[in-house]
Amino acid sequence: MNTFSVITLGCKLNIYESESISGALISDGYVKSDDFSKSGLVVVNTCTVTSRADSKCRNIIRRVKKINPNCILVATGCLVDTDYKTLKEIPEIDVFIGNKSKDKITDALKKIDNNNKKAFLYKSELDGRFNFFQSQNSKRSRGFVKIQDGCDNYCSYCKIPFARGNNVSREIKDIFSEIELLASNGYKEIVFTGINIGSYNNSGRNFSAFLDETSKNFREIRFRLGSIEPQYIDSDFISAFTNDNICPHIHISLQSGSDAILKSMNRRYDIKSFKNIVGNIKKSRDNIFLSTDLIVGFPGETDTDFENSKNLIEEIGFSYVHLFTFSPREGTAAYTMSGKVADGVVENRMNKLENIVTKLNYNYKRSNIGRILKVLIERSKNNNITGKSENYLDIIVKTNLTLERKSIYEVKVVDMIDGNLYGELK
Asked: Do 262 and 269 meet the contact criterion of CB atoms below 8 Å apart?
């Protein structure tokens, strides 16, 4: 019996695509195993968002083959598209599949010559970036739907456009079909995913129009957004975002609080417009969970630039901030920029920001004590019941009742202990 394991690195889109890969393999007669050491086939879905991610992917690939030398090892995902020349020097890999072809994994496996196991790169003539569906064998409590792929922004530090290609949007009828399928399988929450979902544009619908139409067509589903770029947030977006089955949770990428650094990053906004966008978003929904990304140590970042970033995240009062140190990516514009920030300076700046972010997140969580939230149950076993609220908080539900996974319950938040929120059924 053919067994397989999938190891996924990186973003939610990769997770979604890995589940679809699993579904395709199961349909082709494979049996999934969580123990890659005993699987006949191991798929590593790679990430290239930072140089550290690249290194982690390579290390995992070597580790898999060291532990399980007889397996067929497939490397797929972003690192295959951006750094195939380096990856093909790793003898542990048997098959390479880029992002546009990884939906055809079963076809690729049929190309393996058991008498001559020479590594090869599989390429399909068809772009399969939208031939993915969340596997019905998924253990997830929330559904994921890919609506878009690729990016045309080419921020100076980012390698993802080279990995994912140009911006493409999925047909709305296909999106609706997948939502209907997920709803029929009991999903009450669906997350829209992609590389740059705000750039969605298909059949005359931009992302704002898509969001408004979708939320009104599926009133019984609550929808959650992935990360969105500030330039796509206008009055039409805010109008759609106020629909009550859109979760009051949004991640708006900032990256820096300095106009000079934003310009070097090739970002499409300035601080004044960002603050205006965030202000309008915060007015649109009560108790919104607002998160962002911030890069520390971008080339040329001065003490003043850093202070502007630090002051801005405190002024806005984000619920959470994902902090990254600048990672030079070969092939990007920032790779050759002068003005490298010393490692010690970067570390010091990160420490300062981490303390601020911890306090911001703590304060936001505490502000929810006494509130009644709608919690989607993710784990329910042996009185250990946890779920995700509409505003993206993890809630531990204290009850002796049996609560169904994937179902939504009204829960009153009653306490916070060691950073964990506790609630009782309303």
From this structure: yes
pLDDT for the residue numbered 106 = 93
With 0-12 / 13-18 / 19 or more C-beta atoms within 10 angstroms meaning exposed / middle / buried, residue 146 is buried
Residues 337 and 353 in one domain: yes
At residue 110, the pLDDT reads: 92
This prediction has a pTM of 0.92
- CATH code of residue 407: 2.40.50.140
Q: If 0-12 CB within 10 Å is exposed, 13-18 middle and 19+ buried, where does residue 255 land?
A: buried
Within this chain, do residues 201 and 238 fall inside the same structural domain, yes or no?
yes
Burial (CB count <10 Å: 0-12, 13-18, 19+), residue 40? middle
Judge whether 373 and 409 are in contact, CB under 8 Å: no
Tokens 């190309």 -> residue: 111
The ranges of the chain with pLDDT < 70 are 1, 134-137, 382
Count other Cβ atoms within 10 Å, centred on residue 197. Answer: 23
Report the amino acid identity of residue 397: V
Judge residue 376's burial from the number of C-beta atoms within 10 Å of its C-beta, 0-12 exposed, 13-18 middle, 19 or more buried: buried
Using CA atoms, how far residue 343 sits from 20, 50, 307, 322, in Å, is 40, 16, 17, 19
Q: Which amino acid is at 273?
A: S
- The number of C-alpha atoms within 13 Å of 203 and in the hemisphere containing its C-beta is 8
- Verify that 265 and 234 share a domain, yes or no: yes
Instruction: Say if CB 372 and CB 412 are below 8 A apart.
Output: yes
Q: How many CA atoms lie within 13 A of 212 on its CB side?
A: 12
pLDDT given at position 279? 97
Can you tell me the distance from the alpha carbon of 175 to that of 155, in angstroms, rounded to the nearest whole number?
Answer: 28
Domain end residue (candidates: 364, 382, 406): 364
